[in-house]
């Protein structure tokens, strides 16, 4: 472990002195600034609850609070009709609605209206919370039956949902793919090629630290750089950490995929420049699924066989929740499986090629 | 200590062998020179022994243990390899190069500054290797090869490209290491360095060993001592060489009697002359 750490330190030091790391970070900052200041900026909306209260329950609660706690509470979210709630939720994707009416068998009946991206688990949670609240407020009645509550996911809002996401955010997944994910391939070819061109790899090979350590340290360095560049792009443009971890996971898996391809190419070229033609060709191929992301009408089945398809749609699902969490995990699973196969295969090819060359 | 039996190696894995049935042995604490022109198979043999190239055919036995497959960690912990080409990280300082390399070993290593001092680079320790001359980079590579206190040391052209003073200090270090018990495998086409350093040498041409013995024995066996006489003729200084065998003695006496001889120098053949005599070709 200590040896890997020393290798990692050396690779980071060389990465900084070769300007590779600084260049990567610099580019990420420039792109991030462009996305924020040149492309349309998103207007953040606060989470909001629209209330249609036909019973006066909520108002009585507010009045009680105001008297007892000597605080003033003002609500501008009271609406008269269901349509007003839906209009409000269409304008503000962070909003939800609640309709409180007289029940047939119970004192009150509630209906929650939630955004289409709300998960089943969240809907269940809201339902139970409402039941608890009403039961507490009217103990003589005992627990309210479940039939007194309903939670409705407004799927009709689904259409046009993506159109509401500002352009600078919409193009973030392909930018992360190209600038961070595919970086692994480009960087690995360069790093290995440089060690081969300078023959420093020969000096390394006659030490007891094996070639697996050599590749592992480079992968760790690339992952570290990726976390930094990913964060520089993601956090400011997305305006926070929502979806950060799943998106980072997808990105990291893509970096490993790219670096495995880079290792494979690096096995056959002892000069980084000699392999650039293949690198560019592969980059073009790997960016093809972006077309499908923006134009869903172009979605041939074969596109799913390009691993970056899962990167793009995984990132999209992580960044723009739309009841589509399964896409993240499905993409992560596929990428992890591809990584496992490619890392093993490219490592084996690399070690064997190098040993044959002496 | 090291036994090599019937070693073959083909880069293309066909009938063209870069190393073609080479056998030799090296005793503990011996400096064994592998001499030959470029492309003779010196570096390939060293590459196989050091574990850089796969062992295709033949046997390598180290301390009575035959190598099977790729060498293990224990082997790499005990060897040092100096390369012909100065292959150091140019963006790192001389010190960082050595520190990094030292960190790759399991056992005790030399103090990087002490090693740099030995190769005359103490004052340059904190300078980037990329700013060094080729000779200085060569010295970092040499210093690196002994950072793990190796007991088997592979050196490929250790004095190539060095000025005479630095080359002498490198040769002195090699001799000191030998006294400490290090076994040294040295490949070179510098016959003078080999003559000076090696206990035994092997001449290799086209992948085959053509002669193997101590430099002195090779010269005695295949060389002929000569006498060079300088004499005045028509006011001009001329020179003539002749052998020192029984038949040549009377010829020399007669020559001295008949000429105005100014100087007489006896001389023994060089290793290079023996090499040319045995192989019919030079070393470049």
Outline the structure in words.
The complex is a heterodimer of chains A (358) and B (284). With 358 residues, chain A is an alpha/beta fold. Chain A is built from 15 helices and 4 strands. In chain A, strand 3, helix 5 and strand 4 form a beta-alpha-beta unit. In chain A, helix 11 runs antiparallel to helix 14. The two termini of chain A are 27 Å apart. The model of chain A has no long low-confidence stretch (mean pLDDT 82). Chain B has 2 domains: 214 residues, P-loop containing nucleotide triphosphate hydrolases (Rossmann fold, 3-Layer(aba) Sandwich), CATH 3.40.50; 44 residues. Helices cover 34% and strands 28% of the residues of chain B. In chain B, the strands form 3 sheets. In chain B, strands 6-7-8-3-9-10 form a 6-stranded mixed sheet, with helices on both faces. The interface between A and B is medium-sized, with 25 and 33 residues.
- Tell how many strands the DSSP assignment of chain A holds: 4
CATH architecture of the largest domain in chain B: 3-Layer(aba) Sandwich
What is the N-to-C succession of helices and strands of chain B? EEEHEEHEHHHEHEHEEHEEHEH
Beta-strand content bin of chain B: 25-35%
Unreliable sequence segments of chain A? none
Could you tell me which chain pair has the largest interface and how many residues each side has?
A: A-B, 25 and 33 residues
Total of domains of chain A: 2
Total helices of chain B: the number is 10
Query: Which superfamily, in CATH terms, is the homologous superfamily of the largest domain in chain B?
Result: P-loop containing nucleotide triphosphate hydrolases
Tell me, briefly, the overall form of chain B.
globular
Principal-axes shape call of chain A: elongated
Task: Provide a quick synopsis of the model.
The complex is a heterodimer of chains A (358) and B (284). Chain A is α/β, with parallel strands linked by helices and 358 residues long. In chain A, 64% of the residues lie in helices and 7% in strands.
